[in-house]
Design a protein that fits this description.
single chain; 330 residues; alpha+beta; Rossmann fold; D-amino Acid Aminotransferase, Chain A, domain 1; six-stranded antiparallel beta sheet; 11 helices; 34% helix; disordered N terminus; binds adenosine-5'-diphosphate; binds magnesium ion
């Protein structure tokens, strides 16, 4: 048990103050390991060294060291994406070790990692989602019926995961089976969604009790990328990201409200980023990310910057919110 945790209002620099010890977790074992390592490096560089003593851990190799260091750690920054990082498992370990961390707890993290459960909760909350069908491993796929119900094209995606891995856009019934097989190589449940051609936007939320919606970002992949796929996400010049998004005030407001509703519906805490499609003046929610990309130029840090928070200040704020949330739970 750490008895010297600073209170949430004491994170301003004071030379006499003890540095805050941060466990920076990046790497891990999901297919987004490289993305996480890259974010981890940039987060390390941006953290204020006068304020923080930073110890780095890669959950792939360093869980024992993290466990034994726990009494000296004031807070953790989980910069991990996908299963065994963003899905509540690492959050559960940190809860057991009594270490505060940024963002959602076990429940919100686990829910948001599953795109099917998320959709069911969005629908219950009155948030529009693209029409969809879910298919389990072992079901005999009826591609004709899927196409009759959803039309073409459709998007096929594993229910868990991220960075568009295992995802396909399918334009003919014949190619649907191949796309399903690909998605099933990542997961036991697969979603088939109507492909909505529209403007892609993403909405960041920050806060615990009082949620603030950050300026929206409009995402325009270049003409060689049909959607925001892995390459378009991580090769900077392939995608245009416009912040604030060029959409009218009423739709901007609506998208921000949906981002907040999605954050609530999935029991998220601290921050989140909800991906949406704007089509024919209607907004549809695709998914909510509980640990959005955290390089300096990633979407959430860009939106925070537009709201006046530098990358380093954003990290301070996320740590503060994490410590505040930990106190509330204790
Ligand atoms: N139903 C859809 N209609 C149109 N484009 C979609 C749809 N679903 C996903 N996409 C595209 O695929 C990208 C990734 O999908 P998303 O559901 O956000 O999963 P993740 O980002 O976790 O891989 C989106 O950013 C968007 O470009
Ligand atoms: Mg997404």
């Amino acid at each position: 048990m750490n008895t010297t945790r600073p209170n949430s209002n004491s994170l301003t620099i004071d030379k006499t103050m003890k540095k805050i010890t941060i466990a920076l977790l990046s790497g891990g074992i999901s297919s987004e390991r490289e993305v996480s390592l890259n974010s981890g490096r940039q987060v390390f560089e941006a953290l204020n060294k006068e304020k923080y003593n930073i110890i780095r851990y890669d959950p792939k190799t360093d869980l024992n060291r993290l466990t034994s260091d726990a009494p000296q750690i004031d807070a953790a920054l989980i910069i991990l994406h996908g299963p065994y990082g963003e899905d509540g498992t690492v959050q559960a370990l940190l809860d057991l070790l009594n270490i505060p961390y940024q963002g959602s707890g076990v429940l919100g993290s686990a829910i948001a990692m599953n795109k099917l459960v998320s959709k069911q909760l969005y629908e219950k909350a009155g948030i529009p989602v693209p029409p969809y069908i879910s298919v389990q491993r072992g079901d005999v796929p009826d591609t004709r019926a899927y196409v009759e119900q959803l039309g073409l094209p459709v998007v096929v995606k594993p229910v868990q995961g991220g960075s568009s891995i295992g995802m396909s856009i399918v334009k003919t019934e014949d190619s649907l089976k191949i796309a399903l097989d690909k998605a099933f190589s990542y997961d036991d449940t697969v979603l088939i969604e109507a492909y909505l051609k529209g403007i892609e936007i993403t909405g960041g939320i920050i806060g615990n009790e009082n949620l603030e919606a950050l300026p929206l970002i409009e995402i325009i992949p270049d003409e060689n990328h049909e959607f925001f796929d892995y390459e378009a996400k991580y090769v900077a010049e392939l995608t245009q990201e416009i912040c604030p998004a060029h959409i009218d005030d009423a739709l901007t407001e609506k998208a921000k409200v949906y981002a907040k509703m999605a954050h609530h519906a999935l029991c998220c805490r601290g921050y989140s980023r909800t991906d949406m499609i704007l089509k024919d003046q209607n907004i549809y929610v695709l998914e909510t990310n509980t640990i959005p990309g955290m390089t300096r130029t990633s979407l959430f840090p860009q939106a925070a910057q537009a709201a006046g928070l530098s990358f380093s200040q954003l990290l301070d704020r996320l740590i503060e919110l994490g410590i505040e949330e930990h106190k509330r739970k204790c």
